[in-house]
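Lab notebook page, bench 4
Experiment: in silico fold of construct C2
Operator: M.H.
Input chain length: 250 residues
Purpose: comparison with the prior construct
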Amino acid sequence: MLVGLAAAQTPAIEMDFVTIAPGEFRMGCAPDDSPSLPDGTYGVCPPESKPAHLVKITTGFEIGKFEVTQRQWQAVMGENPSHFQGPDHPVEQVLWTEVHEFLNRLNARNDGHRYRLPTEAEWEYATRAGSTGQFGGAPLSESAWFGEGGRTLTESTGATHAVGQKSPNAWGLYDTLGNVSEWVEDWYGDRYYQSSPAADPTGPADGQYHVARGGSWYSTARYLRVWNRYETVQVLKRRDMGFRVVRQTR
């Protein structure tokens, strides 16, 4: 679904959304997930991604078909903080708090919808797209930009890519794995899965870090597994960190 967003104080912005129906899935790393990965790396299930547990998403939502682009960020915020410049590349080097300012400005347009980050559970549900595999059901080389690291993040010769160039997952979402890691709403808790509610979990009430998901152009395959969780400082700006938007009818 395509939506045009406009307000007198900012240029029009267009965002594409995919409707996600309610349902349930098994969240987290399963005991039979292979530690041998497509790029030759190896990684066992980390404790913060265990145990695998059944989660119900009780309310449908719409989520961005693509990661938020620099064109969209510029239209709303009036500037572009990204290191890798390109209007159709995902915006990066954005703080969690700056993402919320972007969302506040979208919500101030009063277009009948509320815009927010996905919860960690919503993100994994949409990224899995009905698959029980570690990479959302699609061959990683066909669906994700990754493995362009080498040396440090700031020294790497890799970069982001324009959104939507790889194959989508089964529910029509692009770049959920790779390109840029994506902020979600939840605080991070390394033992949260041991006691999280079965329906619509939203993470711990507070914490020191927020969660990012999906891995990036810089990551090896072990960090692109659909259940992999990143504890991320909310005041950290990274050139491989962006986000996508969820919207719901007010």
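Observations: The longest strand covers residues 10-20. The chain has one domain: 2-249.
Next step: discuss at group meeting.
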